[in-house]
Design a protein that fits this description.
alpha+beta, Protein Transport Mog1p, Chain A, 4 helices, globular
């Protein structure tokens, strides 16, 4: 199970618990389209690169020297790093989250896979997402048609991954992919965050920068 699928299952578990109480309202808000989602196939989604009147005072900065990206995050939030892979294929996967909601807040950034040959970004994302197949334990995944986006002025592809249990939706994870040096990277975050945390995530993403000459 890859890291993203693990978080998708964690989100599913949280949503199951939340559905017993106030979390039900959040799930239905997403079902009714109250939460943002990419446009249909062929549509273009531009990720915000600036937030008017945003106050980043006191925020911390994380820099991944290995992969050349930087992101700011609220000082009360927590950043953790995990080494994934082995040998020359080792890379760092980071998670930044609100410690008050460790399994249902924040973002994760990691390398998804190498882009083979002359494969386009769209083709690489389609290939990667197609690995999400139903499991023997009743879990399944579906994703929206990838839509064009941008992150740090780089071309990007956005899609929403829905985790299901016995055919019933449990949670939605937004996935933003971009490519640097023939490697496919992904930024992922659960949409079932409380509005305040989701707003913080949008501000974080507006600060995300990538050194293309890294």
């Amino acid at each position: 199970m890859n890291t993203k699928r693990g978080w998708a299952l964690a989100i599913a578990a949280i949503v199951i618990i939340a559905a017993l109480g106030a979390g039900t309202a959040i799930w239905y808000a997403n079902k009714q389209g109250a939460l943002p989602s990419p446009q249909g196939q062929g549509g273009a989604v531009t990720h915000p690169t600036s937030t008017p009147a945003a106050d980043f005072s006191g925020w911390k900065t994380y820099t991944d020297a290995q992969n050349g990206y930087t992101v700011k995050y609220p000082s009360p939030w927590t950043q953790t790093s995990v080494a994934v892979g082995s040998g020359t294929n080792t890379f760092t996967s980071i998670t930044i989250y609100n410690p008050a909601a460790p399994y249902n807040s924040g973002i994760q950034v990691q390398k998804a896979e190498a882009i083979e040959g002359t494969s386009t970004l769209d083709a690489a994302v389609e290939s990667y997402m197609s690995s999400y197949t139903d499991s023997s334990h009743g879990y399944g995944w579906t994703y929206t048609a990838p839509a064009s986006s941008t992150i740090s002025n780089l071309p990007a592809v956005m899609t929403d991954l829905t985790t299901k249990l016995n055919g019933k939706p449990l949670g939605v994870t937004r996935c933003i992919f971009f490519a640097v040096n023939n490697n496919l990277f992904e930024i992922i975050y659960p949409l079932q965050q409380i509005p305040q945390d989701l707003s913080q995530v949008q501000m974080m993403l507006s600060t995300f920068t990538v050194d293309q000459n890294h």
